[in-house]
Design goal:
It contains 4 helices and 3 strands, in the order H-E-H-E-H-E-H. It is an alpha+beta fold. The chain has one domain. It has a 3-stranded antiparallel β-sheet, covered by helices on one side. It is elongated and about 50 Å long. The N and C termini lie far apart (57 Å).
């Protein structure tokens, strides 16, 4: 039985799945003043940043008005980047 079919029929998948990256979403609210501008965040974390864009108003109350998607093989740099991105002025 194929892996995809096993997942549907038995509700689980067997095997190892390597995790090459940790990924983090970091959202920011427009109403707050941050220590780093959006351009400074983009420049400082360009090696971690996969994507960033404004968030649709429907979701912004929950996840912020602007979101950054970051990834790294190690967790610590993501935690440090998130703290810096959220640091208030």
């Amino acid at each position: 039985m194929r892996a995809g079919l096993r997942a549907i029929v038995r509700g689980r998948v067997q095997g190892e799945f390597p995790r090459r990256y940790h990924v983090a979403y970091v959202g920011r609210k427009d109403r707050r003043r941050y220590a780093l501008s959006l351009d400074q965040v983009r420049d400082r974390f360009r090696d971690l940043r996969v994507h960033d864009e404004p968030v649709n108003d429907v979701f912004s109350a929950a996840i912020g008005n602007h979101g950054f998607l970051l990834r790294c093989p190690e967790l610590e740099p993501l935690a440090e980047a998130a703290a810096a991105i959220h640091q208030l002025a």
